[in-house]
């Protein structure tokens, strides 16, 4: 049980530290912590208490360890069903009304208070009154499992997260339910010892998922910090490079202009032609480094009130003439006024649409969808192009990485720029791609960050906004 204790508490700490503001992460961390508390109680009972008893029998340390064992055991038996159901309610919030979720927070604790007050106290052989507690614990755990399996998500899963949750969480929890609550009622005590196998499988799935697809946004958080660090370095480097090259190009122009004047007056046409080549090359260099600098410079956000749906439709208009052989499907949620930088968000979205059209070689289907859920607004651009494999998709946001065959005009900065714009607005950028199927890119705007407000058609007209786009 030492392995279970250490593993579960490590997983709990990873989840909690990765995103402490996420209620999903907090409650799943609590599930792991309460499960680990049961393993701690078993470790104390089997290892530490006997060790202390042999060396210091009837000592205060042994009594203290026994009390810690009792607290850990009770917290595991009562805490795990409660935390698991709360996790499921946070993971699938759309399946339950908000008022019911709030009431459940307190209603679910009332039976626990009754168990602690009216049932016999803790003993090593009978830590809880199983014949009573089972009627609370098992329904909680089954309800949580049903929510995870069949509950409706607020915005749809963007990755393999749902299957990772099902494989990593449900088997250990349901197996624990049977071994720790159901079988003791039937007279089979101590079966919790076999929980270690399913807990081990769950931890293994968690670790595999963490380093492949990501788990509850943890890998996204790690990648985000890495990209932020990379972009800061690129911004600093290109700023220095742009300044140095701009100064040197200025000197080249000054002296080539003098040389050109001399060549004209002396009638040296061949020399003049060579000078023109040098001047054109210097201008080209300056244009290239200027374009890189504009895409990597530190962005200054100038937010104004913008109808996000109108912005999506306006951004699409210039591309409609370039997509004669592309079937365009647009579905936009109406009436969402947000505070954002219209120019930068428009350019960022234009990058995604342009990339999708290029990927399909101007032939296929393009889907542009704007959705809203409880906390976020999302704009998704999906194409039916060739798609990317996992290695390409994982590098897509890295500056200067491109799959466009080394075209002269492609610097691999469109997606990093879009990512940077989203970060400046407190949002995120997700890329999901599959070879032979296509690519989905999702821009996620937290409503709180962009101060999103839903307004009806009358209020839109009063604000001078065209409700029909």
From TrEMBL:
Signal peptide: none annotated. InterPro entries: HATPase_C_sf, HATPase_dom, His_kinase_dom, Sig_transdc_His_kin-like_C. CDD domains: HATPase. Residues 240-449 form the Histidine kinase domain. SMART domains: HATPase_c. GO terms for molecular function: kinase activity. It comes from the Bacteria. Gene3D superfamilies: Histidine kinase-like ATPase, C-terminal domain. Its EC number is 2.7.13.3. It catalyses: ATP + protein L-histidine = ADP + protein N-phospho-L-histidine. The chain crosses the membrane at residues 28-49, 103-122, 128-151, 163-184, 196-222. The keyword Glycosyltransferase does not apply. The keyword Plastid does not apply. It is an enzyme of class 2 (transferase). This is histidine kinase. It comes from Cohnella soli.
